[in-house]
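Problem: given the chain below (384 residues), write out its structure.
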Amino acid sequence: MPRHASHEGRPCAIEIAIAPVWTIRYRGSARQFDFVLVALLQAIGETGRLTQAARRAGISYRHAWNVIERWGAFFRSPLVLMTRGRGTRLTPLGEKLLWAAQRVDARLTPQLESLASELARALNEGLTGAAPPLRLHASHDFAVAQLRERLNQDGATRIDLQYRGSIDALAALCHGACDVAGFHIADGPLQAEILGRYAKWMKPRSQRLIRFATRTQGFVVPPGNPKAIRTVADLARPGVRLINRQRGSGTRTLLEQLLAHAGLSGAAIAGFETEEYTHAAVAALVAGRLADVGFGVQAAADQFGLDFVPVATERYFLILRTEMLEHATVREMLGFLRGGEFRRLVASLPGYGADLAGEVLAIPAALPWRHLREPQREVAGSSP
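Solution.
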């Protein structure tokens, strides 16, 4: 098979993108969903102007109006209302249709991206000249998604991203299933306790940390915070429904520690065992009024127009075997993390920062390793 080259002269790799397809059936008719409509509805909700919505979607005003009218006719109910002097607003059906599309995107996109990376990796193994990608297993994070997108944007797959909970990501690194893992840990008094859960998979003598980002975690609530959620104790009140993250995720670990310090158990909280795998999926359920509160990052609340009650700040780290610092893609990644573009991207995410991104540290220099009650002892030859 001939070698394919990118526009930079480097070997190209196969990339795969998987997108969901909706077929909506109603009153004896069926139609494949047009996702241009989602962009229009979202922009109308944000701007109140169809002209601006059309401009954002990259289509003409006439085309935008035809799309909205066509779907309104299909549902036999309008999706928007136009009022002279007051602009354009979504009807309840338009709001629900937008929420449904955002819900699908929030839940499926990370899983589909992980599947696409897995398939592309398998195909690239048989492609002459295609360099193996850097395998990154990481807890779901908006800045991590930006990292993968920017480093892969020239068409040569270099970052194979698989979303995993923090504990699962660290375990994958220890077992040699990935090259780099991403995890997060709260600042303050909970840090040593959370580190105690991670320590089993961390090897200070043979691994290094890379500073990645800081972020804020807290309660994701509907606009106006109608249930007045301010502390973890409020989660146990009657009539409050929580949407939780999955077991093994760093976010759930943090919430469990906060509850323990408040003398509460998950059994006292309605919805504690209802799980989602991303911050965006948690926020989507709150936006759809299927839960009263979620626990996640501020950027997810902002994405869905929700309110946010800050609870804890965190540091997000990448961790890898020390020898991987000489890997070409790792060197390129470090250069990107230390540059202004990445810091600007992260600063645009509500509740995020990246002032020290790209700094390489020993584990005991960055985390309270010596304060662990039972520090993980390394056995010679145990590191992957």
